[in-house]
Amino acid sequence: MASIFSAVALMVCGRRDAGSSAAPINAVSHWYWREEALYFRQTDIKHTALGYLTHHGASVFWGALFAWALHGRPAARQTGAVLAGSMATSAVACFVDFHLTPQRLTPGFEHRLSQRSLAAVYGSFAVGLAVGALLVRGSGAPK
Which 3 state secondary structure label does DSSP give 33? Predict the structure, then answer.
């Protein structure tokens, strides 16, 4: 869910900030395509598919850490705690992405989006983490 929610935010914000819904997702593939990917505006297999797969992989990584942190904890049953945990996870991901990660491996979409849009993307990521956790929690509830 976090991957989907944040990808939608990337597309909406990309349309507003860069005039292209695909541009921020394409930029994620800069780890492979380098500078070319940062400024490619069209949707294509080469940039957009690799960009989304990379974004999705990172989302799964952070989602797995979030799930591991919640697993077996009583707080995982409390909606407020799940929301707080998802916001903390997203904040840590943002910090790691922009302060601890080598330039070649940063998300790339920061080259196409405003600070406000970056906040929206990481906020959408947090909402997606929470929604996913709450859906999983709900599926295991006694009937």
Answer: helix
| pLDDT tens by residue, the chain, 143 residues | 999 999 999 999 999 999 999 999 999 999 999 999 999 999 999 999 999 999 999 999 999 999 999 988 887 889 999 999 999 999 999 999 999 999 999 999 999 999 999 999 999 999 999 999 999 877 654 43
Whose CA is closest to 128, among 56, 52, 21? 56
Phi-psi region of 106 (alpha: psi -120 to 50; beta: other; left: phi over 0): beta
Rg (CA), the chain: 16
> What's this model's pTM, rounded to 2 decimal places?
0.92
Residue in this structure with the two tokens 């995982």, named with its chain if needed: 76
Dihedral (CA of 112, 116, 117, 122) sign = positive
